[in-house]
Write a structure and sequence with these properties.
The complex is a heterodimer of chains A (about 750) and B (about 140). Chain A has about 750 residues and is α+β, with helices and mostly antiparallel strands. Chain A is built from 19 helices and 27 strands. In chain A, helix 10 runs parallel beside helix 18, helix 14 packs parallel to helix 15 and helix 17 packs across helix 18. The longest helix of chain A is centred in the C-terminal third of the chain and has 27 residues. Chain B has about 140 residues and is mainly α. Chain B has a three-stranded antiparallel beta sheet with strand order 2-1-3, with helices on one face. In chain B, strand 1 and strand 2 form a beta hairpin. Classes of the chains: A alpha+beta (about 750), B mainly alpha (about 140). At the A-B interface, helix 1 and helix 17 of A face helix 2, helix 3, helix 4 and helix 5 of B.
Chain lengths: ~750, ~140
């Protein structure tokens, strides 16, 4: 029965209370462990289409008469357009329409380099680009605000500061035997998805709009675009069957979509607006830089008594205030905690969510601080973390729906135990060491999300839902879930997705939400279809329905009878069995979180400051694992992105002008094959018995969270040096080594094992 | 190209990548940076990996092989089996580079793989699985 409930919904760590109508989720969870299909390594179903170059991405959409767009962007961090003459550009060859600052979201007061000011649609992209040069602009350059601390002082913020306090901080510090205080900094990094942000828009009859877009959320784009143009949502169709990466940067419609749709409306032709790689490095979002001023107090037995953090996020000219203080509030059982977070509004490109926004940055600071505490106490860093294990939610004492972090620690021990041997392999130049860091994050998903399951006479199954697979393999996981419930081999199941006109509402593919939100809906739709099949079979074979089940493509009776599924479905001829399912509610009064620990092994050249990461072992608790093969790919991908964040990636800003120096993949250093360490993945794979009919949580984000801190802690183990800012460039490494030498903590020579 | 003959009728300055994608509709070759930094647009010319986004179509002198000409190569299945792709946007370029490598050197060492593939970026981080795929392409 449909039930109206008020539920807490979380996306990327932001909670909202909202009314949702949910169908009661009456299915029992499957027992733990691998089943016929669920829990078995399964190659992705659309892998061949992607690998053979047959998958149609937004970049490949080409409609008859399609125009191309070039966008005039501000070359300055802050400016005013005194005058813009578009007349010559409008008459240029191939140009069909030009729009300027009076069309939202174009602006005549650009507040960061790359902000869109005008746009040209032409028959070819080359013509559109050429016409940009004919736009006559008189710019007034203004003084940009670039210093985040100055922005906080001036109260130039994107949001109200976020303050949190529990316990009595001063008492906590008074009870401490050891107090450490340090400032950590993390840099701005850019998502740089291989497919840049782009959309193709096409109007039908003036009031219906189709949007092909590289997105993580077709429904979010539908809502954004409908609101922007004042259309009923059903008049907007959004399509994204294949997309080339998002990592949090593609959760909404964004300027390029509005520009394409507006130009398409004016010209009556389909219009593509695609960001170049350089534009992608300017105006497609980023993980904001942070400054973290942290203080921690601990008793000599290792019990944390106080944690205090001030976090300044360099938001750029927009975005939202991420929870950089989240790990400090949530990871450990500390009674006295205070965090204050500021989102500095600067004349730099606005941030967007980037794979565990806030928590990647905050975990670097907190987990580095924990190791500095462990060193002062002369306590094993893993033991220090165990002693501060949180039995329940440290913020509001709620029980966890499930938590297997201690099991993660236990499984990390053999990797941690390698450190004597690793250290002993050091020589005069290369110092080697091992470090670890823990992780906490959300990832429980939630309603609403819906799926339909269609069974044909040939006993083949289509799972129909307007979700999107952004490259994580979530579509294959859905096929596995439906196949499991219907007792079918997976090659009889196909998933149809990525089109708001051809399937019901589904979750955003962000916040590690796809599997925990969609998986239970697909299972419940498959169960609905299975029930109908068994009802028909009971009549066809004159058996009691309760004796029948589906297994290996057959209808099986507990009296020993067994018939191919096609025998029943074949009677339908052109008829179909239609199952529907929805995501049930989250358990009330519980905190749904994901946990994990990573152990990194590094080598540091103490003469040049070069850092090599040799090995990372990742142990994560995300509930039931649907596809161990795809899951290991998610872990590797998260760690490799984390590696880039730790060692090589940085969006560099000219400090005088606020312009971006790293606009190409030559200047912005992504990890390559040569940088990749040995990665060992171990997932606890214990279903969360309180969470949905699956017990699965999300996995997209957790693996990137502890990587930077684990590497930095391994560097301390190897060298005795405390790195405190990302990326760990050679300059930062050599600075930390110098500092360690001065205070006498530098490790010299190869220690005894 | 890919065993067939094509007549190029394109304006001077057309890149090989744009000619493939826009003029003759072979969209398996992807463009991700359009300035020769990422490898997504890799095709082979006489078996040698070439960045098609910075190659002028009029300057091509040799037989071009794109992903469309490699669809039946066992490397494609090796990539799928090993889960050596996520979003898949860089994958055709990865496979073009990998097939060029194994044509010269059917059983490359890990170092040889890393050297030959270093010009193909993957933002999803499929590198370990691609190494597995290349190591097992003949299975």
């Amino acid at each position: 029965m449909a039930r109206l409930i008020k539920t807490e919904k979380e996306i990327e760590g932001r909670y909202t209370e909202q009314w949702v109508v949910v169908d009661e989720d009456a299915l029992e969870q499957w027992p733990a462990g691998p089943r016929d299909t669920v829990g078995r390594p399964t190659p992705r179903q659309d892998g061949s289409r992607r690998a053979r170059g047959e998958a149609r991405y937004t970049a490949d959409v080409k409609l008859p008469g399609m125009l191309h767009t070039a966008v005039l962007r501000s070359p300055f961090a802050r400016a005013r357009v005194r005058e813009l003459d578009m007349r010559i550009a409008k008459r240029a060859p191939g140009v069909r329409a030009v729009i300027g600052p009076d069309t939202a979201p174009l602006t005549d007061e650009p507040a960061y380099q790359g902000a869109p000011v005008a746009a040209v649609a032409a028959d070819t992209y080359g013509q559109a680009r050429a016409a940009l040069a004919l736009l006559e602009v008189e710019w007034e350059q203004l003084e940009p605000l670039l210093d985040p601390d100055e922005a906080v002082r001036r109260n130039q913020l994107v949001d109200e500061p976020s303050s949190y306090e529990r316990g009595d901080l001063e008492r906590g510090f008074a009870e401490a035997d050891v107090v450490v205080e340090a400032e950590f900094r993390t840099q701005t990094v850019v998502h740089n998805s291989m497919e840049t942000h782009q959309a193709v828009c096409h109007w039908d009859g003036g009031d219906h709009l189709t949007v092909y877009i590289s997105t993580q959320f077709v429904w979010g784009v539908r809502e954004d675009v409908a609101e922007h143009f004042g259309l009923p949502q059903d008049n907007v169709r959004v399509v994204c069957e294949f997309m080339g990466g998002g990592f949090g940067s593609k959760n909404g419609a964004d300027a390029h979509t509005y520009i394409a749709a507006e130009l398409a409306r004016m010209t009556g032709r389909p219009v593509r607006c695609m960001l170049t790689r350089r534009e992608e490095n300017l105006d497609a979002g980023n993980r904001n830089a942070t400054i973290q001023r942290l203080r921690a107090g601990v008793r000599s037995d290792g019990t944390l008594t106080a944690l205090d953090g001030e976090f300044v996020n360099s938001n750029g000219f927009g975005g939202w205030l991420t929870s950089t203080g989240g790990p400090m509030r949530m990871l450990y059982a500390c009674e006295n905690v205070r965090t204050v977070e500021y989102g500095a509004k600067l004349n730099t490109p606005p941030m967007k969510a980037f794979r565990a926004p806030g928590f990647v940055e905050g975990t670097f600071g907190l987990e580095r601080l924990m190791d500095e505490l462990a060193a002062k106490l002369d306590l094993d860093p893993l033991e220090l973390r165990r002693r501060n294990y949180a039995q329940h939610d440290a913020m509001d004492e709620r029980p966890f729906s499930s938590k297997n972090l201690l099991e993660c620690y236990r499984r990390a021990e053999p990797h941690w135990a390698r450190r004597d041997a690793v250290r002993a392999s050091s020589d005069e130049t290369w110092k080697r060491g091992v470090g670890l860091a823990s992780q906490v994050w959300y990832g429980g998903g939630g309603p609403p999300s819906y799926a339909w399951v269609r069974v044909g006479a040939d006993a083949r199954v289509a799972v129909v839902t307007a979700m999107q697979d952004i490259g994580t393999g979530s579509a294959t996981a859905m096929a596995q879930i439906a196949a499991e419930e219907l007792g079918l081999p997976i090659d009889r199941v196909e998933v149809s997705l990525g089109d708001t006109a051809r399937g019901p509402y589904a979750t955003v593919s962000a916040g590690s939400a796809t599997i925990p939100s969609m998986g239970p809906a697909v299972r419940s739709a498959a169960a609905d279809a299975a029930r109908q099949i068994l009802e028909i079979a009971a009549q066809r074979y004159d058996r009691e329905q309760r004796l029948l089940s589906l297994k290996d493509g057959r209808i099986v009776c507990s009296d020993g009878g067994s018939w191919p599924l096609e025998e029943v479905t074949g009677m339908l001829e052109s008829g179909q069995i239609l199952g529907k399912g929805s995501r049930g509610p989250n358990p009330t009064g519980m905190r749904i979180l994901t946990f994990g620990v990573q152990v990194a092994e590094v080598a540091v050249d103490v003469q040049t400051g070069e850092v090599r990461v040799d090995r990372i072992a990742a142990v994560h608790d995300v509930g039931r694992v649907i596809n161990p093969l795809g899951a290991s790919s998610q872990v590797e991908g998260g760690i490799i992105q984390g590696l880039g964040h730790t060692l090589s990636e940085e969006r560099l800003l000219d400090p005088a002008t606020g312009t971006i120096l790293t606009q190409t993949l030559d200047a912005y250093k992504l990890p390559t094959f040569a940088d990749v360490p040995v990665i060992v993945t171990d997932l606890v794979d214990e279903p969360d018995t309180h969470l949905t009919n699956l017990g699965s949580k999300g996995l997209g984000e957790p693996p990137i969270i502890p990587t930077a801190a684990a590497i930095a802690n391994a560097i301390r183990d190897a060298t005795g040096a405390d790195v405190r800012s990302l990326p760990i460039s050679r300059e930062e490494m050599l600075r930390a080594l110098r500092e360690a030498r001065e205070r006498g903590t530098e490790r010299v020579g190869a220690p005894a094992a | 190209m890919n065993g067939g003959a094509y007549e190029v009728d394109a304006p001077v300055g057309r890149s090989l990548a744009d000619w493939l994608r826009e003029d003759i509709g072979l969209t398996g070759t992807k463009i991700a940076c359009n300035e020769g930094h990422c490898g997504a647009c890799t095709v082979q010319v006489d078996g040698v990996p070439v960045l098609s986004c910075i190659t002028l179509v009029h300057r091509v002198d040799g037989e071009v092989t794109t992903i469309e000409g490699l669809r039946e190569h066992p490397m494609v299945d090796a990539f799928v089996r090993a889960d050596a792709l996520q979003c898949g946007f860089c994958t055709p370029g990865q496979i073009v580079s990998a097939t060029a490598l194994v044509a010269e050197n059917p059983m490359p060492t890990q170092e040889e793989v890393r050297h030959a593939m270093a010009g193909n970026l993957c933002r999803c981080g499929t590198y370990p699985k691609i190494e597995e795929a290349i190591a097992s392409w003949q299975d």
